[in-house]
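Blinded run. Sample ID left blank on purpose so nobody reads anything into the name before looking at the predicted structure. Input follows.
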Amino acid sequence: MTLNKFNLPDVGEGLTEAEVVSWKVKPGDAVAINDVLCEIETAKSIVELPSPFAGTVTELLVPEGVTIDVGTAIISVSDDVAGDPTPADVRAPEAPAQAEAPAQPLYGKLPDDAQDNGANDAGAQGSAPAGGPLVGSGPKADAVKRRPRTTRAAAAVKPADSLTVNAPEVEPVQPHTPAEVTGRPAAAAPQAGQSAVVDTRPTLGGTITGLVNRVLAKPPVRKIARDLGIDLADVVATGSRGEVTREDLVSYQAQRDAELDKADGFWGKAGKPQDQRIETIPVKGVRKATAKAMVDSAFAAPHVSIFVDVDASRTMEFVKRLKASRDFEGIRVSPLLILAKAVIWAAARNPSVNASWVESGDGSGAAEIQVKHFMNLGIAAATPRGLMVPNIKDAQDLSLKELALALNNLATTARAGKTQPAEMQGGTLTITNIGALGIDTGTPIINPGEVAIVAFGTIKQKPWVLDGEVIPRWITTLGGSFDHRVVDGDLSARFMADVAAILEEPALLLD
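Blinded prediction complete.
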């Protein structure tokens, strides 16, 4: 038996330390290559570490909540796979042996949600044999875990005295049958957004099979719900087929956070010692990295900020038409999409705002300006672990629909805390959508390594003078901050005017 120790790898460029947030295995567990061992928090984000070994976990060398340096051993795995061998008289003789395909560890990468479809048809390949599951079959080498099927009827072999309600998957059980057999009230009929599935529960007399309700949702949405600890049955579904969408999860999470903020028990009791009434939160991980970056940016780059009020009424009309378009069916569309396109368009007309100020680093004071002929568009996102700025790579090459999909995926991944370090590196210009919180405008701090950032305020109906008449229009305020070493006042003003022009007339994008 060989004992292998897994050292903390560098999952991002220049990573020096990370905190072990949570372990996904315990001593005695059998693991396959690429099975997730733990979650770590770097200065960038939360990352899942896959196993480079197959075998049995012997010891967790680092407890949760401890910050360690790269190269520190965190877990030991023996090559002796746990689990008793399957008896030959129980093994299904006709089942062909599955050859294990070699797997490579994917440090810092998440498994593809799309692979976990969890919705195979009844009788599809990979279902359990008629006699029940094989004893001691052990885990598969595949890193993607399949959830047990709940739509399959109970195993064919049952005790003679077991009670069974046969429930076809297509036709519902008669309302009186469960009550007569089990002595319990019949389950209510499935509502919109729910599908009938078979519930198999052990009882003293055997197995009872009946109908329960299952909430409709795509596998990626189910995974996000699991990560956030959300019960899909509690979420109001707004999908076209009554399914729970990613936007529904985001809305539910925001409401839940607001309720927690108002929860009783926050204030400490009067008369207690002062140190018992003050909560101390260690500054580490994403919060620590963000604080350092903001201080460095605020005091290293001379900020200049300008603001402009914009009549975004035609943008609101355009967004409304996109939402009704068949091409954008199922895609969340907001004015932020038009702003993103406007920033890309305006940066092409004013290239120096899409640049970096780079100092030589040899103490000579020499520096250079690097103008980027590509747009890695950063979107500032508030997450449970602090501010993150993931970016959309080569955003200038994306169509309006592709950009909408990229924004949706970026926001959902960031709020779920699954943004990878590589997704936050190499940004060239950033947007921060403070209007989502009802704020009119603000003075944003430039993301380190960039020279410009645009703050997008809330869009409200306000009185506006148009052709000599005061009428209600949808108005927003843009706030831009620029590194004055690179972007002069004239250039910043022209850039902001170009962004405003697109919001006032999105048809200019067709030029």
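Unblinding after everyone has recorded impressions. The two ends are 68 Å apart (CA to CA).
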